[in-house]
Amino acid sequence: MYLFIHTPSPQHTYLLLGKKENSFVKKKLPFVQGKRRNILADVDMFLKKYQCSPKKLHGIVVFIGPGQFSYLRTGVVIANTLGYTLGIPVVGISAVDAVTPEIFFQNGLKKLSKTKKRRLIVPEYGSEPNITKGKKMG
Hints:
The chain is an alpha/beta fold. Helices cover 30% and strands 20% of the residues. A 5-stranded mixed β-sheet has the order 3-2-1-4-5, with helices on both faces.
């Protein structure tokens, strides 16, 4: 099984789980205005729903950008961490290769088939992070 993590923004976040036979299941993570997602918990629940232990994963494909800083960073960190702890390859796919879930899936599998060793994936942010200072505490 292969896990696909697509997290460019809160409105366009989804997970895919599939095999090489071109079949996959998709879970679009609902967007609720003003509510932060726990993407790691979403990945865990998604794998459990489809009875896929992380040990059954053979590779991970993650969307690397462009997109919102915190969402891309979260998706990439989850993918890199799972890849490292499970000893499986992780590859990154940019927007050009992830126009639809089907294209994301196909291009991700192609890239995984050419990857022999683990490497660290780095996100490609659309712009510099917009980090504001919070109010000073009393």
